[in-house]
Amino acid sequence: MQRRQFIMLGLGTGVSLSLGLTLYPVLRNTEQSRTDAATLVLDALLPALLHGALPVEAAAQQAALRRSREAVLQFLPYLPRTQQAELQQLFLLLQQRLGQLALTGHWLSLNELPVGQRLQLLNSWRDSYLATLQQAYHGLRELLYGAYYGQPQHWPALKHQPLEFNPYV
Amino acid sequence: MYDPIAEGLSRGWRHIDASTLTTDQEFETDVVIIGTGAGGGIAAELLTQAGFKVLMLEHGAFYSSSDFRQQERWAYPQLYQDGAGRKTKDQAISILQGRTVGGSTTVNWTTSIRTPANTLKYWEQEFGLDFASTGALEPFLDLATGRLNISEWQLTPNHNNGMLQRGCQTLGWEYTVIHRNVKGCANTGYCGMGCPLNAKQSMLVTTIPAALDAGATLISRVSARELVWRGDQIQELWAVPVDLHFQTDPRLKIRIRARHYILAGGAMNSPALLLRSKVQDPSGRLGKHTYLHPSVISGAVFDEPVYGNQGAPQSIYSDQFVWPEPEKIGFKLEVPPLHPVLMASKLTGMAESHADLMRQFNHLQVVIALLRDGFHPDAQGGAVQLDGHGEPQLDYPLTDYVWDGVRRAYLAMAELQFAAGASAVLPIHHDAHLYQSWSQAKAAIAELPLQRYRATLASAHVMGGCNMSADPATGVVDSFGRHQQLKNLTICDGSILPSSLGANPQLTIYALSWRICGELIKNLSV
Of B451, B477, B492, which one is at a domain's C-terminal end? Predict the structure, then answer.
């Protein structure tokens, strides 16, 4: 069984059946749809995960979020293809109504949920009995925090001033 | 700034970046070496100097000190396996492995430790490898020590290591000043991103330049895909370029015929090539018994600044708990360098709680406990398998025996950090909190649920999967790295270790590879 089928089955049996749904949607899986899905999910989760770390000023906050999202998107192609496929599938599921309902318990799209509910959602994945949801929590968390704290613009809050032999902009 | 790689290339070193090739290629050579890390680097220098025509293959890029950027967002995708995102199959353990010319030696933290006597004794008892009783490895440990300028670190440890030392002193625990393979080290702290000063005596700046100076050829950005074999002989190797993201790019084929093949791709990658090649495995151990030194993490907050990103990343270790009573797994205490991405991705919590901890970045101190796996029936490591793309995945089960070590490690690290003066300690576990006293931490750690995804585990030492043994029934290679079935194949890298070491592995791999290649040169010269 392919990993993708496994995840679908895991989510289908573990989550959506409990809601009386059969979760086996036909996923649009083009390059553009993958990027769109990733962007949508990242734009919803980054403000939640980084709540308390982001700059307060609106323009600076938006710039920080944009930088972090781009950093994630640029990093993804370095992951093993199997891991990339799993993440892409998660992003696609999260942008679809049925997938969203199964994964979040809400009909509202992720970016319509208040930040507190997005954090509750991530916590529910962390504490889920489903390994796939726990993996999603840890995988996204590492990816998103790595993307944010990898940017020198976000280091002043840490009072981090590293040496730099070869400048990297 | 002096760049030995740029200078060598300008002198005419033979280097091919496979990602720039446009047509199929064929190569003939005496010896092809797959991988340029600790094993491949030593092999390249020795075989080239013995007069053999040598071809080196490396999946990663041929970067040098001029390329290295002192930022994790550059270093991880460019220098590490899977962008530093490699994990066990169930994603419960993160794995750091280098993937660049010089392999992990280009990005490791320079800790150089001789093979522990207890480990050699275990190998003798279980695998008939007589290094302990004959002292056969000692001369090669000495040779590698000399070649790579390994010596005790003379400067004061940075505060991150200093807290480990202080905690040990307060508690009366053993600690040791680490030996490092450096020359002219400026104590900057960027070992993990490629040394910007060429001070680290990695394969990148020592043996590989020596081999290239002596006429060897290096192909970078190439992935060895299959050994074609018949009977007891490998006939040729098929490889493909990789793209700019280091993914295999099968648009063209590279065929290599050699008199002898040396596999040095590191644990996981070396067994994966043999699995893809469907090489015979009568011992049933190919890819099996792969060890990680699964590492448990404990953070602490100090009132005084720690600046864990500055200075030699590792200069103190403690072996207080490495060899406890036989029925318990031992662990070595060390510290990691503290850079923002590494720190942020491992710290627990989210949103405000995570941000609060990150704001204390310069006051955070971290200890890691490396569990010594492979010495007990309930710590037999993991199995390398191939995913749908033919890439390795490590299925690593976590047993109760290992989890018991995790709990004892959390306890030891918290006790040590409070003894060193920490104002609070945070075991890196998703159910743990900041604890303000040793008694509070002790009580809480006793109740932590120990299961995958709750405890954050990591590894920087992958070992085994093609283990040595004197008995073909219990090993993939013999004590000279000779494959038990394929007569023109030698393996010299971390995959041949029959257990974990209970110590950082680079010096052991250098020494074993030196010994293996000396024997190989004798045999090939006949």
Answer: B451
Closest chain B CA to residue A148:
B341
Return the closest-CA partner of residue B60 out of B190, B224, B215: B224
Q: What is the pTM of this model?
A: 0.95
Residues B223 and B276 in one domain: yes
Q: Is the pLDDT of residue A3 over 50?
A: no
What CATH number is given to the structural domain containing B215? 3.50.50.60
- In Å, how far is B129's CA from the nearest CA of chain A? 36
Cβ distance A165 to B245 less than 8 Å, yes or no, reads: no
Q: Which of B453, B456, B457 to mutate to test the interface with A (most CBs of A within 10 A)?
A: B453
| Domain presence at residue B335 | yes
- At CB < 8 A and 24+ separation, what contacts does B123-128 make? B123/B468, B123/B498, B123/B499, B126/B474, B126/B498, B126/B499, B127/B467, B127/B468, B127/B469, B127/B470, B127/B471, B127/B474, B127/B475, B127/B498, B128/B469, B128/B470, B128/B471
ipTM for the complex shown: 0.95
Residues B305 and B199 in one domain: no
Read off the CATH number of the domain in which B161 is found: 3.30.410
Whether residues A165 and B391 touch (CB distance < 8 A) is answered with no
Closest residue on chain B to A156 (Cα): B359
Query: Least CA distance to A50: which residue of chain B?
Result: B351
- Place A28 in a pLDDT band, splitting at 50, 70 and 90: low
How many domains does one find in chain B?
2
**pLDDT, chain A, mean:** 83
C-alpha separations of B260 from B16, B29, B141, B396 in Å: 21, 9, 25, 32
Say which of A160, A163, A167 has its CB closest to residue B188: A163
Q: What pLDDT digit, counting tens, does each position of B332-371 carry?
A: 999 999 999 999 999 999 999 999 999 999 999 999 999 9
Same-domain check for residues B275 and B365: no
Q: Mutate one of B200, B345, B456 to test the A interface: name it (highest A CB count within 10 A).
A: B345
Q: Is residue B359 one of the residues assigned to a domain? A: yes
- A78 and B73 in contact by Cβ < 8 A? no
Rounded CA Rg of chain B: 22
Q: pLDDT tier at B325 (50, 70, 90 boundaries)? A: confident
Full residue range of the structural domain in which residue B445 is found? 152-181+295-372+399-451
Handedness of CA A62, A35, A70, A41 (dihedral sign): positive
pLDDT value, residue A94: 86
* B208-263 pLDDT tens trace: 999 999 999 999 999 999 999 999 999 999 999 999 999 999 999 999 999 999 99
| Whether residues B246 and B282 fall in one domain | yes
